[in-house]
């Protein structure tokens, strides 16, 4: 069975985000208070960073002018079944600038049956951001169903992104998005992506 055949509401961004958060936390509030918002109320540069149909890896690297690296905080996977289906693989991640500053928190759920063996192995190796892997694999990708969120950071998000908030003195909300990626026309990836609170360069604050 595809990892994407279980029921969820594709039109409710809070429900979509909560579903992903609960892969790792009993309560969505552990990550933060989630609120659906329209693009027009999201301040720049968060709006441009989040409201698009491209990979966040690319958007973050363009914004920061440098490659980002991956840190996997936690992961879990559905065991392969008797028919050899890989099932789903989920992980909580951080993206970091070369100076070690955290620029993004995320939770992703991937249907590994929608990728080839080499791509699945690269994803599980947890060394390269997912967006970069999919781009370099030259897979037919479609990022869609992008919806934006305002997040009042909860204890876990505050803890994980502490270096970004401390470096900027940021104490306000964070902004993020939920999205899905289809590969070869098949649903394959669910994403919750949160720009680290206070990632704004000093010149723009």
- Radius of gyration computed on alpha carbons: 16 Å
- Provide a count of the helices: 7
- Any idea what the CATH architecture is? 3-Layer(aba) Sandwich
- Name the overall outline: globular
Mean of all residue-level pLDDT scores: 87
- Low confidence ranges: 1-5, 201-205
User: How far apart are the termini?
Assistant: 48 Å
Q: Summarize the biggest pleated sheet.
A: 7 strands, antiparallel
Count of β-strands: 7
Please give the share of residues in helix: 25-40%
How many domains would you count in the coordinates? Answer: 1
Features:
seven-stranded antiparallel sheet, 7 helices, disordered N terminus, Chorismate lyase, about 200 residues, disordered C terminus, alpha+beta
What this model shows, in words?
By secondary structure, the chain is α+β, with helices and mostly antiparallel strands. It has one domain (13-199): Chorismate lyase (3-Layer(aba) Sandwich). 25% of the residues lie in helices and 33% in strands. The protein is built from seven helices and seven strands. The protein has helices spanning 13-21, 46-50, 56-64, 117-125, 130-136, 155-160, 162-168, and strands spanning 32-37, 69-77, 88-96, 102-111, 141-153, 174-183, 186-195. A seven-stranded antiparallel sheet has the order 1-5-6-7-4-3-2, sandwiched between helices. Strand 3 (88-96) and strand 4 form a beta hairpin. The protein is globular. The protein starts with 12 loop residues before the first helix and ends in a 10-residue tail after the last strand. Residues 1-5 and 201-205 have low confidence and may be disordered.
